[in-house]
Each structure stands twice: as structure tokens, then as C-alpha cells.
């Protein structure tokens, strides 16, 4: 195997004391920026990028990618402990992670999140190692109709597979789509719904909305119900970690399914977010007791985390092989590569073998070292829950505000975040799910652009969504998923399946 | 390592050659504002400058790149406009300063900012897939003969790529469907994947896919050929690409890359940055970058720059009006 030889060579490049120290430093910095909501991976990498200008490219990219891994691990911590997703793809982790923490199972949830991140990344790295050239040519097959079909699939799987009342999901999603339309419309080149306000030019930033919807609204609810964070310090020890690991094989189907979804969506830009939601929804649909989801099922942490990290990792592949960044952080790493005189593109794998394989080897090492590092620090993070609510709540609000401000350096975003906090509180009170809203807010623009570009290209006919095997099968699958409750009932009636407890009356 | 040594060498040379420090100096980190997304041509240039300044010790304060590509770059323009009197922010501008106020009615006028210097001119090239027609003549003939209009990929709507497409239509009589993508990188991969028939990307945006033999340059939209004669692919250099005029289609467009400070800064502050960016254009990093990305080197400041901007503005305005892109 040529790949294996090159990979071993990559390890040889890496295994020096200097690189290992840089790796540790990167991971610790990454976890730190990941824990602060809003700061997150892209900002962390951007702030630290200039530090690496004087290093050689391999050391620099190892340190930067370790910040990235660290931030990925760190993002799960706030999602689980405080219901505040640090990155877009951590949103689905809060659904079951936060209830687990409230039940006093914070350590278990954190261990599950870290372990599944590790599994997801590992599968993706293996894929990159052995299938890189094949996969990058697959990404080229995606034109506007294919992109739209993938987004449609994500939206439809939400409506068809979610357990909330369908009309509430649709209401929530429509509101999200509406807000996503604010700002510059790239297809026509004119402004929409900005009402002459320069603050609205930028549109509504997804992370600002998420920090408000989840974080601030949670504080409001807690203030109303009980002035304490529920859940007390779980007994944290090696036993908890080993306990979670012992149960891991039971969930192999979930892990495998999520890894597959993650890798598949990771190579199409923006796929990590779609992947985490889809992983969660499918796990819920195929579970034996779907009722437990949303109330603290460990599978509800495994599924989205595995998918998000499989796609987050495989998102680096199109960046290296085609020069298209799959995520915000990947985009900044891309900027870094160019500073060091490396031009991502089809020839990078041929002309800079040392660098590429050093990076891939660092993905393996960074993940292993990162896992050990975060697991040993779980007790420290989980103990935050023992601090009285009165002391910790102001700190959360302040760090949310800093996070919202830091995304675009705009004071207006802090007001927006507070506004979304109230919206989130009202939504929770009247039982409208928040997840479809956030999904529509983050994917709405891209879905719209992809749809309109498909229409321009095809001269306005919808047939373009069935114009080849790839786009045709994704679109058909999307429509099947949308009407899945109906189809499932019909199948049950003719006796083909037992029918999974029908969701629509 | 080699780059590092070179950088240190250049720094030493500069330290020995430059006279005493300018009267004013930034006391806070300087923000270089990019009016485009991460990884685009403006971002790459900003990061090159950041590296050149840091490696050659051209400024005591650090320089940070701040991406304000929201609303197709309008975010950066409004940000600069509202930072009046702040000498720690520099905008790296391109033709959007003329075009956005016209097409999207953004309340912005570049005359409200303080011009520092024009640092480069960027080219536009017509590219097609390497499996497509081999010359501009064949390409135009194929576009005319096609049953559905050829798809032309580009960045943004009612901007330089779109304007070029309209003029190409006017001069050749062929019809194109213009697909506005989010970045030049995306337009490049979409062409490689055969989702579009052509694009009018800057050299830097298509460089890597050209080297990989996936796209073919048909012609460059300039009066003369690009000057760089070093081989980029196995057989061709930038200078081997014919101009569109040579091929019988007289369409020309060059895009400025220029630095601006916010309005109402002092002449000393302006002088510091004119000097700083002049030094940047002398560094090895800048020179390498210009050749690699096939940019035209230029350095204008003071009156020359204002005159250039006024002429360029008038030209862009007439092109936009003729293309029908000015919002009513």
C-alpha cells in the first residue's frame, strides 16, 4: 500500500519532541477557545495564525489543526453543561447531552461526546488516508442541483422524522427561513429586508441567534423554575469512562451510521451541520424506544457528535484537494496554507507529499492525544455544575455576550442575542421546537442560492432535480422522508412492516 | 526554512537601509479589513501583507486580518465609513468601492475615506474546461450553436464578472446564463466539474486547476499580454495567453487593489501608511506573490492615486450603466 508507506513517513516527520509539545499547546489552547461560546474554532485559529508565520509549514499546520481538534472537543463541553452550543454542529448535542447533565450524568455525557468525536474523526481520517483521490473527484460531481437536493434532504428528514407535531416544526422552520433572507441576496445583488439599517446588512449571524436561543433562554427558564442548576457532581472516576466504553459496542450501528452520514456530507461544503442533525434524527427514528430521546439518552449524544466530527474531519479533504473550505475553520486554515506558499489544489498531494502526509498523521496523533487530554480533565469541567447558580449564571451571561460580540465585533449583536433569548424562552413555553428554526437559519441561504442557480442553469424547469442518477436519488429520498409517516402507515396497513409507532394521527 | 532565511535577510537589508522612523506610529494593533470571504483573492493578499510586515519588521505593532465579507463586502465598506478618525484600520479595496453603491444603493462613497496607495492591478481571464473548445473563436461558435445558453460562472451579481459577461455577449452575439457563486474558488471547481461551460476568474483563482490541466485559458481581458514568462504549466506561461483583442473580441478590464484609511485621519498618519505599503511592495514576499498570482505591479499614492481613482470610477460607472446594473 503506497498510502500506508507515506503515512508512516508522515509519522516519522511528526515524532519529534518539538512537534509533540506544539501539539499539546495547540490542544490546550483549542479546548480553551472551544469552551467560550462564540469564540470557537474559527476565531481561535484566526487569532493564533500569525504566531505560526515564523514556523516551518508542517509544525505550523500541526499546531493549528490541534487548536481545531481542541476546539471541536471543547465545543461539546458547553453544549452539555450549559445548553450553549459553541459551534453550529454542536446544536444537536444539546438535545440529549443537556438533559443528561441535569440528571447528574454530566460526566457520562461528556465521556460519550468525547469518545464519539474520536470515533467519528478516526473513521474520517481512515477514509482520507485510503480514498483521498477517489473522494475528491466525487465532490466535483456536486453542482447547484446536487447541493440543493442535499439541503432538501436535511429539511425533509427534519419534518418527516422529527417527533414533534409536524405543523410546529414547519412553523419554526419557516420563521428561520424568513430571517435567513435578511441581508444581501447574492443572486440578484440587491439588499433584502434591511429597512435601510446598516446593522442588518450583514444579515443575522447564526451563532448569535444560537447563543441567545439556547443559552440565554435557558438562564431565563432556570430563573423562573428554580434558582439552581439541577444535577450535582456525578461520581467521576475512571469507572464512569470505562462504563461508557463498555457500552460502546451496543451502539455500533448508531456509530457506524453517523460516521457514514458524516463522511458523505463532510465532503460537500457546509455539510457538518446537516450531518449532525441528520445523524440525530436517524438515530431517533431507528431506535427501539424513540420516546426517550430528548430526555437524556446516551445515543442522542453519540449520534450527532460522531456525525459532526466525521464530517468536520472529512471537510479538510475538499480543502486540500480542491481548495474549497468545508467549514469556517477550514477556510482560515486555507488562508494559512497560502501564507506558507502551499496552494491547495489537485497538485498539493503530488508536489507537497511531506506536508500532506504530515498533516494526515497529525490528525491521528492529535485525536489520540486530545482524547486523553479531555478525558483526564472531565472532572474539572463537570465540577463547574457544583458552583451555585447565583454565581455561575452571571458568568454565563457575560461569556455569552462576549461570544456574541466577538463574532463580528458588533455591539448590535449583543442586543440581537438578548432578543433571541426572549424568543427562545417564548418558543419553549409554547412548545415550538428550536432546532428546525436554527437549521433553517443556517442552511436557508445556501439552499435558496442553490435552488435559484439550478433554475438559472436549467432555464426554469424542475426536471433538473432528476437530471442524473446522483441528484435524482437524493431528491427522491428527500421526498420519501418528507412523507415517511404516511408511507410508514400505509406499509403497516398492508402488513409489510410492523409500523413504528406512527407519529401523525 | 529557506523562506525564513530569505525573510530574515530582507529584514536586515531593510533595517540598514531605511532612515529614521516616521513621525507618527500606530500604538495599537492595526486591523487590515478584507471586504470578501476567507480564502478569496483579497484575503490571500491581506495575509501576504501581514506576513511581509511581520517577517520584515516593518511595523512595531502587530497586524491582524479582519474578515468583513458580509453582504458581498458592503459590511467592510460601512465599517470603514463608521470608523472615521481611527488610524488603526486599513481597508484592502477592489472595484466594489465603485460598483456596490451603484448596484445595491449602499450609502457609501470612496471619497469619504482617505486613500493610501494602489498596490496592484488584477487581470481577468476567460477560461473553459480543458475538454471544451480550444480557442476563443471555437468557443464563441460553440456557444452560438448550443441549444441552451452556455453557463458562465462568476463571483457575485452585478459586479466585475457579471459586467464582463454582458460585454462578452455584446461583442460576440453569443448568449450566456450567468451563475453568481459565492467565491472565485467555487466558480473554479464548478467549471472543473462541468457544471458551467466557462468563467472569467482572476488568474489566482484558477491557477491551481490550470496547473492540474483541468481548465484552459482562452484569452486575457487586457490591452497587452501578461508579462510573466516563467512556465506555469508544463507547456505554458502567463505570457502565452493571447489577449481577447488579438482573438477578435475587444473587451478590456483591469481591477484595482488599493489601500484606504477611514476618513478624517491626520496627514502624518496617512504618510505612515503610504511609507509602510511602499516598503511592503519592496519585499520579496510581495514580489513572489505578484508573479505567482499574475498581478500587475503598480504603486500610486497622493495626487496620482486620486486621479487614477476618479478615472477608474468614471469608467466603472459607464460600464455599469451600459450593462444596466445601476439600481434606480
TrEMBL record, chain A:
Keywords: Membrane, Transmembrane, Transmembrane helix. The keyword Transmembrane helix applies. The keyword Endoplasmic reticulum does not apply. It comes from the Bacteria. InterPro entries: DUF112_TM (IPR002823). It comes from Bradyrhizobium yuanmingense. Coiled coil: none annotated. The chain crosses the membrane at residues 60-82, 109-135, 147-163, 170-188, 200-220, 251-278, 319-343, 355-375, 387-408, 414-443, 464-487. This is TctA family transporter. The lineage of its organism: Bacteria, Pseudomonadati, Pseudomonadota, Alphaproteobacteria, Hyphomicrobiales. Residues 20-438 form the DUF112 domain.
TrEMBL record, chain B:
It comes from Bradyrhizobium yuanmingense. Gene3D superfamilies: Bordetella uptake gene, domain 1 (3.40.190.150), Periplasmic binding protein-like II (3.40.190.10). Keywords: Receptor, Signal. Residues 1-22 form the signal peptide. Coiled coil: none annotated. This is Tripartite-type tricarboxylate transporter, receptor component TctC. Belongs to the UPF0065 (bug) family. InterPro entries: BUG, Bug_dom1. It comes from the Bacteria.
Amino acid at each position: 500500500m503506497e498510502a500506508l508507506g507515506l503515512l508512516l513517513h508522515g509519522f516519522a516527520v511528526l515524532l519529534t519532541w518539538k512537534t509533540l509539545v506544539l501539539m499539546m499547546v495547540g490542544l490546550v489552547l483549542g479546548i480553551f477557545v472551544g469552551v467560550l461560546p462564540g469564540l470557537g474554532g474559527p476565531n481561535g485559529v484566526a487569532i493564533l495564525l500569525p504566531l505560526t508565520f515564523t514556523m516551518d509549514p508542517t509544525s505550523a499546520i500541526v499546531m493549528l489543526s490541534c487548536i481545531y481538534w481542541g476546539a471541536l472537543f471543547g465545543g461539546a463541553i458547553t453544549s452539555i453543561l450549559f445548553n450553549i452550543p459553541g459551534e453550529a454542529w454542536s446544536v444537536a448535542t444539546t438535545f440529549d447531552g443537556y438533559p443528561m447533565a441535569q440528571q447528574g450524568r454530566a460526566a457520562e455525557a461528556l465521556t460519550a461526546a468525547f469518545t464519539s468525536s474520536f470515533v467519528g474523526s478516526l473513521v474520517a481520517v481512515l477514509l482520507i488516508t485510503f480514498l483521498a483521490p477517489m473522494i475528491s473527484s466525487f465532490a466535483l460531481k456536486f453542482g447547484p442541483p446536487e447541493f440543493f437536493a442535499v439541503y432538501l434532504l436535511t429539511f425533509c428528514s427534519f419534518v418527516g422524522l422529527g417527533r414533534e407535531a409536524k405543523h410546529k416544526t414547519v412553523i419554526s422552520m419557516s420563521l428561520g427561513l424568513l430571517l435567513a433572507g435578511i441581508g444581501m441576496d447574492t443572486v440578484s445583488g440587491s439588499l433584502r429586508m434591511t429597512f435601510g439599517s446598516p446593522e442588518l446588512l450583514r444579515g443575522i449571524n447564526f451563532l448569535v441567534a444560537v447563543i441567545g436561543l439556547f443559552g440565554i433562554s435557558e438562564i431565563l427558564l432556570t430563573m423562573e423554575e428554580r434558582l439552581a442548576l439541577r444535577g450535582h457532581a456525578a461520581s467521576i472516576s475512571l469507572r464512569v469512562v470505562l462504563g461508557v466504553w463498555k457500552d460502546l459496542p451496543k451502539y455500533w450501528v448508531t456509530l457506524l451510521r453517523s460516521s457514514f452520514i458524516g463522511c458523505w456530507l463532510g465532503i460537500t461544503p457546509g455539510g457538518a451541520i446537516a450531518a449532525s442533525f441528520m445523524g440525530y434524527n436517524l438515530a431517533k427514528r431507528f431506535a427501539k424506544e424513540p420516546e426517550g430521546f430528548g430526555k437524556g439518552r446516551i445515543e442522542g449524544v453519540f449520534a450527532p457528535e460522531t456525525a459532526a466530527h466525521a464530517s468536520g474531519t472529512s471537510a479538510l479533504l475538499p480543502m486540500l484537494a480542491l481548495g474549497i473550505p468545508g467549514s469556517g475553520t477550514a477556510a482560515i486554515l486555507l488562508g494559512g496554507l497560502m501564507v506558507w506558499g502551499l496552494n491547495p489544489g489537485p497538485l498539493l498531494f503530488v508536489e507537497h507529499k511531506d506536508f500532506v502526509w504530515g498533516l494526515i498523521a497529525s490528525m491521528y496523533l492529535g485525536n489520540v492525544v486530545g482524547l486523553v487530554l479531555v478525558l483526564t480533565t472531565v472532572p474539572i469541567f463537570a465540577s463547574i455544575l457544583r458552583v451555585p447558580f447565583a454565581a455561575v449564571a452571571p458568568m454565563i451571561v457575560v461569556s455569552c455576550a462576549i461570544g456574541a460580540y466577538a463574532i463580528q465585533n458588533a455591539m448590535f449583536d449583543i442586543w440581537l442575542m438578548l432578543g433571541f433569548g426572549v424568543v427562545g424562552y417564548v418558543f419553549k413555553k409554547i412548545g415550538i421546537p428550536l432546532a428546525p428554526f436554527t437549521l433553517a437559519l443556517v442552511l436557508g441561504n445556501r439552499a435558496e442560492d442553490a435552488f435559484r442557480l439550478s433554475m438559472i442553469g436549467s432555464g426554469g424547469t424542475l426536471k433538473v432535480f432528476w437530471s442524473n442518477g446522483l441528484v435524482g436519488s437524493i431528491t427522491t429520498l428527500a421526498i420519501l422522508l418528507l412523507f415517511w409517516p404516511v408511507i410508514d402507515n400505509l406499509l403497516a396497513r398492508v402488513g409489510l412492516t410492523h409500523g413504528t409507532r406512527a407519529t401523525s394521527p | 526554512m529557506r523562506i525564513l532565511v530569505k525573510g530574515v535577510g530582507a529584514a536586515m537589508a531593510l533595517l540598514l537601509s531605511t532612515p529614521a522612523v516616521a513621525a507618527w506610529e500606530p500604538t495599537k494593533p492595526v486591523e487590515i479589513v478584507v471586504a470578501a470571504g476567507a480564502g478569496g483573492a483579497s484575503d490571500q493578499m491581506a495575509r501576504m501583507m501581514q506576513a511581509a510586515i511581520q517577517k520584515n519588521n516593518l511595523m512595531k505593532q502587530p497586524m491582524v486580518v479582519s474578515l468583513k465579507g458580509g453582504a458581498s463586502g458592503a459590511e467592510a465598506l460601512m465599517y470603514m465609513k463608521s470608523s472615521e478618525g481611527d488610524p488603526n484600520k486599513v481597508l484592502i479595496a477592489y472595484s466594489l468601492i465603485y460598483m456596490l453603491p451603484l448596484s445595491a444603493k449602499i450609502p457609501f462613497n470612496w471619497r469619504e475615506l482617505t486613500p493610501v496607495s494602489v498596490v496592484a492591478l488584477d487581470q481577468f481571464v476567460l477560461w473553459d474546461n480543458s475538454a471544451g473548445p480550444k480557442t476563443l473563436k471555437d468557443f464563441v461558435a460553440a456557444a452560438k450553436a448550443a441549444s441552451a445558453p452556455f453557463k458562465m460562472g462568476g463571483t457575485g451579481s452585478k459586479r466585475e464578472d457579471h459586467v464582463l459577461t454582458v460585454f462578452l455577449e455584446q461583442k460576440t452575439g453569443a448568449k450566456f446564463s450567468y451563475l453568481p457563486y459565492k467565491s472565485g474558488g467555487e466558480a473554479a471547481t464548478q467549471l472543473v466539474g462541468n457544471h458551467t461551460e466557462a468563467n472569467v476568474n482572476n488568474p489566482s483563482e484558477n491557477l491551481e486547476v490550470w496547473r492540474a490541466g483541468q481548465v484552459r485559458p482562452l484569452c486575457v481581458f487586457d490591452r497587452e499580454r501578461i508579462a510573466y514568462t516563467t512556465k506555469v504549466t508544463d507547456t505554458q506561461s502567463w505570457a502565452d495567453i493571447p489577449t481577447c483583442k488579438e482573438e477578435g473580441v475587444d473587451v478590456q478590464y483591469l481591477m484595482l487593489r488599493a489601500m484606504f484609511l477611514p476618513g478624517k485621519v491626520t496627514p502624518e498618519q496617512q504618510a505612515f501608511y503610504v511609507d509602510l505599503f511602499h516598503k511592503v511592495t519592496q519585499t520579496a514576499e510581495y514580489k513572489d506573490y505578484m508573479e505567482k498570482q499574475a498581478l500587475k505591479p503598480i504603486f500610486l499614492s497622493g495626487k496620482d492615486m486620486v486621479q487614477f481613482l476618479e478615472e477608474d470610477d468614471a469608467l466603472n460607472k459607464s460600464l455599469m450603466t451600459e450593462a444596466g446594473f445601476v439600481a434606480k
